[in-house]
User: Fold this.
Amino acid sequence: MAAATPPTRTNRIRSVTIEGFRSLKNIRNLELPPLTVLIGANGAGKSTLIRFFELLSWMLKAKNLQEFVLRHGGGDDQFFMGARKTPRIHAELCLDTEKGQNDYRFDLAHISAGDSVMVMNEAYRYSAHDIPTKAKWTEIDAVGKESSLLDQTHKTAKTIVNLLRQCSTYHFHDTSINAAIHNRWDVTDSFRLRSDGGNLAAVLLDLRKTDGKRYELIVKQINRVLPTFKDFVLEEEAGKVLLRWVGRQSDKVFGSHLTSDGSLRLFCLLTLLNLPPDRLPDVMFFDEPELGLHPHAITLVAEMFKRLSKKRQIFIATQSPYLVDCFELENIIVANANNGETLLRNLPREQYQEWLDDEYQLSDIWLKQAVGGME
Assistant:
């Protein structure tokens, strides 16, 4: 009998150090599991970690750091308590690939003129898994308003850029009348689901044409949660498609404007989480994905997060006890606020196993203040 093929190591972010970014004053060597669930009350700062990785994605995607800063309140707002109190942001990331560890570090300084930021002290290195000592840093001498890592030709720099630029945050919150999901969409924009779900109809139409079994699975899963749902009605007209569906009780076709917010978010989540891995980024962030979902839907989505985390790295920010209880201690990072500073920490099993042995749920531990939950 042939030996089993070992699972392929997923490229992922192993740990991060962040000093001075917004409320993240001093986060050192925070371990990030393949499936990370950030829990915390309103204002605890759990979403700030996601914003940091959004900054990285903008910075390394097409040298759009200044655009990110402009869209998010200006340069001064990116520094803990402002640039006068915190003159510099420092960050270090450890990225795991199949053969080794890729490290990247950089600083950001505030520029008063134009309320922008400057990138400096960039460096990178690669250390093989089978070599115990760390490699020396390769320092980038350039200083400027955008990252110079993109200009490096070394394989390590390219590996780091390729992983971090793919960090994608999915917000399916906007289901207002002007939301993109209500628009007719170009059928050719169908390979990846956009972060706001705007091209959902195009993605579903493509799956129905090219991967019928996957499409049927999505429809079946939606029906498990919404028994009145029968199928999508996806008709191409002049190269565009509109999101519509039909129920089981009648042949009336419902447009997205007649669909509840929770149902639209469910359509987006189940479609995204069922896409083939090659149509997904390596690192995926979800900010409160439970909004508007029925408990049965939350359970289904949580199981799909677990399955997908074997192939892609998943980050979830939530304050839902129901969602938290779907995961394990090793998945949890707790966010607490202390005098404007966000504290993030893992939950060691040896410290909290006794609570679980006494039949407490993860959410009970959090809510009862054992790890600093709600008041």
About this structure: The first strand starts at residue 12 and ends at 19.
